């Protein structure tokens, strides 16, 4: 069942949250954020308010403070249970109190409580966090400020005291009763190429001769009706770097904050190699819950999630390697498998899967991922074919930690690639299962195409495994490095690797340097990437690197409020409290001790409305431009055979816009196999008509060229030359290896 979304606030009840102001500072690939929530009690009695809001699960929240009547009250980070006791005690004694915590079910949901807000009183609550920015395939750094928190499907056995159980009012995105503003500064020593956003911006002001910094703000009138997304392109991205940050021994005599911390950024130069002869077992777990009937975004003609999912499955099916094994599971409140067990990839099994994909609907109710996951993991392994799991969901569940734990328990037998579909998808779920499953995570929002991101993940899955990964430090005598990041078990070409370490011992003079080396083995060949760096630590009042290092540790050790083992919980609590970074076991608590007398009058509760993209309204009508199966590209790909070839038939002729008779007449080699001619024509069409979508079809096109080389090598040159002339295209014959 979907948890009740809460009663709408009655119009006569003023909403105490008046505005949200966000200040963003991005330096290289790290974002520092300060978000201020401005409250005002316009009623005649004291209030207790609850505000539930989303936040990226990679965010390291390290500060929470209240400004009351010109005085700042800084919150303390405490054991969550103790923080709740302190808060409830303060409220019962009519003292003003403030509480900030992660949800017990998910790292990407927070709740802010304001207790005993006096009549006429104004309070500004500011939370601060730092975050690594993910790197996109085109080199962009992506920052997302989440606006949307969709209702999350509750499965049996989920905790009952989740923040999401608060009956907070839900309103359409356009009707939020509070204002929103955001200003940002972006800086890079390498210079900024350009900045893009899904939201209207005021004119961007670039500073410096090399555009090393930029000032950004949202255009006036922004309603926070969608996630705010920035794509930042630097002139140089793939530059290895090391930053060393000074510790804080005075206030932290022991623990992580005492010593300098280092952040190493690698861009492994993994060479191109031929895919391994081991094909793999590919299992696709596709969300078919009711919410998949919604559009991916609010933008005009945005494709419905389920339609994008179906197109994606077709592309994946056609791109699978010959002789692999595969299966597809559709899930919602229940689930159904296309085959009882994974089957060998043949023409018959591919056609049956294609038929089932075309029948898929978003009609399976809620979102229960755990049960089909358990069924998949119970299936016996296929010898010689390592399991590669692809999970597609809009990520609205409350048993996030249970799902992550299940994937983690089977991490040695598979890799898990995950995809969050649409705004409001849980970053905690999507990133969490990919992180513990040794895969990659992708989010599909705005104009993003699920198809391209899924095919990129498939390319990663087809890469030969990088083995024997290690990070080694060469430091002056008396200085050592303790790695804080979780052990790295996977590397993918084109991806960034960030490693955190604590430097202990005697720091050398200013001119001292160190070296860190990333070592790994690829198909029996040893590879290494080295970076030399200065050992002179820099002062940062926010201790950004220390906070990010703590977050990396917490993500690997803290597996949920009810899931973390007792022994590990002790370490989690120590690192969380020592470094001031919130975890599932800690919460920020502040008490206003300057009020001389208790707040008078009965205490009323007010829940702050939160924006939602999905509602109970009927699904949007499908636009003709996005209805499944109407594009020629999808139709052409649907016709490809499992071995990579195409048949010369009426369906292909219709897509090429040429009669079948003329296609036969143009066959340049008498008695040649017609499939060879058809396959060459199809590949030429892909390069001539769908070049801009090459990332979506390059794997299946490569399979087609492999088939041509195996079945028509002696006449390939004639076929290619004739196909280019016949179709009057300008395709370079070199794409065929000629």
UniProtKB/TrEMBL annotation:
SMART domains, sorted: VIT, VWA
VIT domain span: 1-131
Domain VWFA: 281-462
Superkingdom of the organism of origin: Eukaryota
Family annotation (Pfam families): VIT (PF08487), VWA_3 (PF13768)
CDD domains: vWA_interalpha_trypsin_inhibitor
Annotated protein name in UniProt: von Willebrand factor A domain containing 5A
Annotated source species: Felis catus (Cat)
Lineage, top ranks: Eukaryota, Metazoa, Chordata, Craniata, Vertebrata
Gene encoding the protein: VWA5A
């Amino acid at each position: 069942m979907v948890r009740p979304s809460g009663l709408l606030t009655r119009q006569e009840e003023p909403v105490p949250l008046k505005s949200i102001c966000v200040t963003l500072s991005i330096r290289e690939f790290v974002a520092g954020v300060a978000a201020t929530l401005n409250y005002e009690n316009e009623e005649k009695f004291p209030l207790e308010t609850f505000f539930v809001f989303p936040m990226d699960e990679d965010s390291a929240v390290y500060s929470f403070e209240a400004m009351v009547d010109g005085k700042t009250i800084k919150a303390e980070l405490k054991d969550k249970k103790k923080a709740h006791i302190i808060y409830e005690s303060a409220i019962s004694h009519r003292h003003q109190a403030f509480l900030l915590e992660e949800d017990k079910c998910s790292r990407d949901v927070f709740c802010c409580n304001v207790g005993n807000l006096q009549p006429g009183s104004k309070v500004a609550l500011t939370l601060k966090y730092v975050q690594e920015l993910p790197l996109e395939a085109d080199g962009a750094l992506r920052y997302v400020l989440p606006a949307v928190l969709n209702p999350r499907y509750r499965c049996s056995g989920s905790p009952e005291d989740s923040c999401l159980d608060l009956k907070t009012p839900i309103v359409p995105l356009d009707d939020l009763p509070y204002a929103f503003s955001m200003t940002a500064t972006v800086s890079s020593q390498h210079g900024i190429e350009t900045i893009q956003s899904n939201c209207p911006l005021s004119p961007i002001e670039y500073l410096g001769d090399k555009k090393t910094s930029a000032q950004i703000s949202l255009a006036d009138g922004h309603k926070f009706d969608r996630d705010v997304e920035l794509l930042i392109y630097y002139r140089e991205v793939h530059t290895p770097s090391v930053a060393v940050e000074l510790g804080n021994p005075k206030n932290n005599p022991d623990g992580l904050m005492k010593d300098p911390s280092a952040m190493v950024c690698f861009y492994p130069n993994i060479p191109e190699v031929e895919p391994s002869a081991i094909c793999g077992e590919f299992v696709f777990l596709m969300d078919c819950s009711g919410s998949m009937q919604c559009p991916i975004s609010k933008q005009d003609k945005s494709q419905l999630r389920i339609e994008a999912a179906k197109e994606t499955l077709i592309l994946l099916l056609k791109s699978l390697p010959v002789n692999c094994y595969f299966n597809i599971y559709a899930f919602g409140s229940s689930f159904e498998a296309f085959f009882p067990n994974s089957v060998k990839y043949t023409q018959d099994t591919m056609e049956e899967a294609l038929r089932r994909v075309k029948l898929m609907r978003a009609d399976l109710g809620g979102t229960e991922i755990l049960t089909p996951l358990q069924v998949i993991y119970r299936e016996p392994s296929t010898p010689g074919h390592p399991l590669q799991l692809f999970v597609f969901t809009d990520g609205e569940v409350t048993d996030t930690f249970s799902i992550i734990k299940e994937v983690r328990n089977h991490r040695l037998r598979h890799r898990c690639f995950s995809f969050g579909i649409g705004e409001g998808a849980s970053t905690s779920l999507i990133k969490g299962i990919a992180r513990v499953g040794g895969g990659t995570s992708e989010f599909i929002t705005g104009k993003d195409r699920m198809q391209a991101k899924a095919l990129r993940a498939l390319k990663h899955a087809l890469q030969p495994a990088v083995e024997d990964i290690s990070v080694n430090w060469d430091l002056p005598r008396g200085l050592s490095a303790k790695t804080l990041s979780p052990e790295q078990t996977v590397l993918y070409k084109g991806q960034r690797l960030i490693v955190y370490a604590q430097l202990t011992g005697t720091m050398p003079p200013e001119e001292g340097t160190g070296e860190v080396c990333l070592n790994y083995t690829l198909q029996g060949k040893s590879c290494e990437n080295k970076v030399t760096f200065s050992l002179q630590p820099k002062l940062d009042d926010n201790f950004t690197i220390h906070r990010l290092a703590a977050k990396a540790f917490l993500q690997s050790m803290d597996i949920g409020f009810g899931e973390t083992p007792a022994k590990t919980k002790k370490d989690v609590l120590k690192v969380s409290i020592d470094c001031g970074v919130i975890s599932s076991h800690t919460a920020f608590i502040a008490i206003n001790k300057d009020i001389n007398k208790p707040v008078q009058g009965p205490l009323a509760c007010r829940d702050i409305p939160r924006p939602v993209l999905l509602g109970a309204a009927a699904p949007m009508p499908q636009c003709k431009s996005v209805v499944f199966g109407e594009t020629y590209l999808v139709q052409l790909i649907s016709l490809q055979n499992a071995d990579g070839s195409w048949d010369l038939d009426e369906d292909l002729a219709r897509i090429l816009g040429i009669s079948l008779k003329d296609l036969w007449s143009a066959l340049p080699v008498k008695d040649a196999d017609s499939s060879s001619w058809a396959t060459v024509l199809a590949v030429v069409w892909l390069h001539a008509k769908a070049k801009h979508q090459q990332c979506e079809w390059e794997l299946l096109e490569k399979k087609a060229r492999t088939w041509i080389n195996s079945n028509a090598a002696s006449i390939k040159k004639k076929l290619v030359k004739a196909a280019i002339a016949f179709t009057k295209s300008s395709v370079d014959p070199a794409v065929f290896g000629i």
